[in-house]
Amino acid sequence: MFKKEKWTFTGATGKEYVFTISSKSEGLLSTPGVFIQAYTHLRGHMAGWQVNPLHLAHSENMGAALDASELSDDDVALWNCNYVLMNGDEAAREEVVRDLRGVDHFIC
Hints:
The protein is of the alpha+beta class. The protein has a single domain (about 5-100), classed as GIY-YIG endonuclease (3-Layer(aba) Sandwich). It has three helices and five strands, in the order ββββααβα.
């Protein structure tokens, strides 16, 4: 895939959240945080990358939550990476998820 290590998502409030990017095969750590399962692809020559979120969630144990996520068969076929925002504060994680779900492109 691409060499980028971080990706910034902007919530409905305008707040920016910087997520770490990992491949699907790396899985997730058993730590608290917010994660996005996504399909990331090249938009075209020199147009850059596009992220299509498939599932957005938060958990005390992201590894277990990832194993339990319920992607459709079509989404599983597309899913190629994870975006992770480590955060041990449950209320803060809930706010991040709520803010990101308020944006049109977060259809998950």
